[in-house]
Amino acid sequence: MVFTEAFRGIVNYSRILARTSCRGVQFSIEQRGLHNILHKSFVHSFPNSFPVEHSSNWSNRRHIFYSKFGGLLLVLGAYSFSWYLFPARVKADSGVGVSEQLEEATEVEEPTTQVRFPTWLEVEENGLLKRQRLLGAGPRFMTPLRVKVYAVGVYVDEKEARSILSGFKYTDPEQLESDGRFWSTFSTPRSDPGEGRKGFGKTFRLVCIREVAGKHMQNGFDRGLLKRVREAEKKMNMPDGKQALKKFNGFFLEKGTMAVGCELLFVCSANGTVDTWIDGVHYGQVKNDALCWALSDMFLGMKPVSKEIKQQVSQGCFSWLQES
């Protein structure tokens, strides 16, 4: 029933759009005195729809052309519409945000995707197990139709992060969210006393909510990270980002298709390394400051790929900084 109604709706919408577009084109043509030329062209192109013996009544048969044009629009929209035919089970956006659930829960649910995130996560950094705290989580949308592809949770090494971020004071989460200085400090890739830099461990946990090909995931991250690693090299003296990104992207291709529920961990250590884990398997480590910074900036910078993720993490950061 849902599929039938959805399909009927998109067909009707395509016909309405075609009719509206064609009327606009027809008006423009009539204003320029090309009405008869267009008529002859249609008779030649669509002899079955515009028979010569009924050419005087062709204007009454325009709905046939509208149907043909509407069909073209339907085909163009079919690929995007197909994302909705077999989605993972996702309810309407509702419920309490992740940041509001963090105070007492051991596990929280991202309301848009229903993906659950533990409030604490054990990750391996250079052979050592470390415990990191969830700051917030949100959905990642793709295409103009805002198709939900995966949910992202952001975790930090609480002790390391608090020693670096505790000096920031805000009156509300919105003030924190818009402070570029805070997020620049948050995204520092590694600690280097000689350069006056202090970094801390952080992890980005992604959970797929629909099946995604490794090539598609690679393309998505390449679009988000390539311009950022270039910026890091030009403006922040962080070289070799493109080579690091190529190695990082190779992990998605090595994995191949990622099923619904597939878990990806990008563990960024304070020494400038990124470890990639997919469904519990370690795919490799990349040591590069530009890549570490670009990952943080992609999700939490001043032009994030998902405003929803940054908003939730900002609210979580604000609440966390208020704690004694």
From TrEMBL:
Keywords carried by this UniProt record: Membrane, Transmembrane, Transmembrane helix
InterPro entries reported in the protein's UniProt record: Chalcone_isomerase, Chalcone_isomerase_3-sand, Chalcone_isomerase_sf
Chalcone isomerase domain ranges (all copies): 132-313
Pfam families: Chalcone_2
Organism: Galdieria partita
Keyword check for Hydrolase: no
Record GO terms (molecular function): intramolecular lyase activity
Protein's UniProt keywords contain Membrane: yes
Transmembrane segments: 65-86
Coiled-coil boundaries: none
Name used for this protein in its record: Chalcone isomerase domain-containing protein
